[in-house]
């Protein structure tokens, strides 16, 4: 079992290991449990046995739960059972459900305690750490939310064994990203055969990937500086999600987006990291994208949270583990988009022809 | 012109005076202006001239704007104009509109700068100070929101001159409450003839009432202690609003609620402050209440934010300016409710017979 401390004004710990769902301890007496409706029933029952929730709320799976409408229904259920301000919200499931649960916890009675039990690789490596919570708007992803650090995070690696392979590989994008921006030792490990549910490299690789984010978040709790580096690959990723109405899963969008950011980095004089990002895409085998023009994604990139009054800012890499934040000229964005689209099309053709990884 | 400093982690100042709408200075370049649709057009135009908003959003008047549905529409409008994270939200209007605008500012892109320009007495004395923002649920008032301190608050006393008399008197409840819990010099001033729009006592009385809240909030920014005293009279007030679906205006509900809290205080051995709370009600002349049984309001009191796992907590007064927080036995609540209802009915009969103040 590994334990990673997150610092800042509201410190907490992330615990990574097997069998954690059965050993939860929650200080608050009244607890609301929120989980996606496609979660294996046994996970829900194990948590119910451990914390005896006063209400268990099932929400739509994946991003379908991340709407203000779903949130309104969940909040009403909390009010109907009169969950008190010294109660707690427990989010069990993937990153979408825990993002929603966190924003519910942040907003109900102006804030109650929040616990996260991520059951996907993406949820463990990304969504569970950092205090970001929120929902989507029709206009774009994660445009509404709050910074609301959890009281504790438990990553039970047993829960990954029921994940479909493509969902596990989707989630590896964030671990690979943490390798690119800070800990290169993660790159070969993420691509290794033993990085799989039940595999020998699983728990330590997850814990080390979490540790990258934990360090960044501890040093920068409100995203004024270093924390923005965690968005490497995310500007195009959010645009791909927005333009396809979330048909592209987040981790696959990040895989595609990292390759675009690697291309833009190289175009602005950085080291060539495109072999790494292509190797990851070959390993991840994301679903092919629909045909997209630059004009389709550009408005979504301009609306990204990293945009300010002066234009679109990008996280780029000087070289491995040396990220920086910069404004990128529109002509570079457009040109690299065309080349990126060719790379992606070639990748899809290769996959259609059979395994390439 | 009076300036009141609010301390804490995010300090800011409240400025009280005439003509402030024309002299606003906002650091952020892109500003969204939110106001209720019944606000005098000239107020909106003066603020537009001062800050050149990129979007001006009109929302339903009073509590009709404090819903998650209205909030979703406002957030979408901000996303459609791509208000950047270094932009700002300006809330102009009564406490309901500024509560909504503040929660929008707290949530959009996980938080942008917020400015408040209250145009009602209630908004100036109560809603504009303390960083409480939020909306209602069908289950009760202010059950969703965030603590989100503004960057600055401007109280232009000229805006009170267009307020209907009954709305001005409604808002005086919070100023009177600040007198009861901390600054007894406010009590005779609130009831004096020169406390009226354009009157000689107006600006200083408002500023002194704000100063009470400013002091409390500065000392206790997350409502773990002293800040709860600001809820004197509010447990029944929120129940009256809930059971009547907000037909009772907040300030009138607080007027009624203060008298109930004064009764309960006396029943538990405190000084008799019911002559003061009755004098205020005679001055305020609230609309008569519908017939209510204790069973009608009790569930709403149990759902109040001050309720925790151990029951309903009340703010009571040992004597003038000596508030305390305690749990009240249910039989006392029930008995005093019956007596309170008699007082209130007598008051309404007196008013029906002609002016009593």
UniProtKB/TrEMBL annotation, chains A, B:
CDD domains on file: DHQS (cd08195)
One GO MF term: 3-dehydroquinate synthase activity
Keywords: Amino-acid biosynthesis, Aromatic amino acid biosynthesis, Cobalt, Cytoplasm, Lyase, Metal-binding, NAD, Nucleotide-binding, Zinc
Catalytic activity: 7-phospho-2-dehydro-3-deoxy-D-arabino-heptonate = 3-dehydroquinate + phosphate
Record bears the keyword Nucleotide-binding: yes
Lineage: superkingdom: Bacteria
UniProt-annotated binding residues for NAD(+): 95-99, 119-120, 132, 141, 159-162
Signal sequence residues: none
Domain 3-dehydroquinate synthase C-terminal: 171-307
Pathway: Metabolic intermediate biosynthesis; chorismate biosynthesis; chorismate from D-erythrose 4-phosphate and phosphoenolpyruvate: step 2/7
Database matches in InterPro entries: Dehydroquinate_synthase (IPR050071), DHQ_synth_AroB (IPR016037), DHQ_synth_fam (IPR030963), DHQS/DOIS_N (IPR030960), DHQS_C (IPR056179)
Subcellular localization, as worded in the UniProt entry: Cytoplasm
Enzyme Commission number(s): 4.2.3.4
Family statement: Belongs to the sugar phosphate cyclases superfamily. Dehydroquinate synthase family.
Function: Catalyzes the conversion of 3-deoxy-D-arabino-heptulosonate 7-phosphate (DAHP) to dehydroquinate (DHQ).
Protein name as it appears in the record: 3-dehydroquinate synthase
Taxonomic source organism: Deinococcus rufus
Source species taxonomy: Bacteria, Thermotogati, Deinococcota, Deinococci, Deinococcales
Gene that encodes it: aroB
């Amino acid at each position: 079992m590994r334990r990673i401390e997150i610092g800042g004004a509201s410190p907490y710990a992330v615990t990574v290991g097997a069998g954690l769902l059965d050993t939860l301890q929650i200080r608050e007496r009244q607890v609301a449990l929120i989980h996606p409706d496609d979660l294996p029933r046994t996970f829900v029952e194990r948590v119910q046995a451990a914390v005896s929730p006063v209400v268990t709320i099932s929400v739509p799976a994946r991003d379908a739960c991340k709407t203000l409408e779903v949130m309104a229904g969940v909040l009403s259920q909390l009010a109907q059972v009169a969950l008190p301000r010294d109660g707690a919200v427990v989010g069990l499931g993937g990153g979408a459900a825990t993002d929603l649960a966190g924003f519910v916890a942040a907003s109900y009675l102006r804030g109650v305690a929040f616990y996260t039990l991520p059951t996907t690789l993406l949820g463990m490596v990304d969504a569970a750490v950092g205090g970001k919570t929120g929902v989507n708007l029709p206009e774009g992803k994660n445009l509404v939310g709050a910074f609301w650090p959890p009281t504790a995070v438990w990553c039970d690696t047993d829960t990954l064994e029921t994940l479909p392979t493509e969902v596990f590989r989707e989630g590896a994008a964030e671990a690979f990203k943490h390798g690119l921006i800070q800990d290169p030792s993660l790159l070969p490990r993420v691509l290794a055969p033993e990085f799989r549910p039940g595999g020998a490299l699983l728990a330590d690789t997850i814990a080390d990937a979490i540790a990258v984010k934990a360090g960044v978040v501890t040093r920068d709790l409100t995203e004024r500086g270093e924390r923005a580096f965690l968005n490497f690959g995310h500007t195009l990723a959010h645009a791909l999600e927005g333009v396809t109405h979330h048909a592209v899963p987040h981790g696959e969008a990040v895989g595609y987006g990292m390759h675009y950011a690697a291309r833009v980095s190289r175009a602005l004089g950085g080291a060539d990291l495109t072999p790494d990002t292509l190797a990851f895409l070959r390993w991840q085998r994301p679903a092919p994208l629909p045909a997209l023009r630059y004009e389709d994604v550009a408005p979504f990139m301009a609306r990204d949270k990293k945009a300010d009054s002066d234009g679109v800012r990008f996280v780029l890499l000087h070289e491995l583990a040396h990220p920086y934040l910069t404004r990128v000229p529109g002509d570079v964005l457009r040109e690299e988009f065309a080349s990126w689209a060719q790379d992606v099309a070639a990748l899809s053709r290769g996959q259609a022809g059979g395994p390439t990884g």
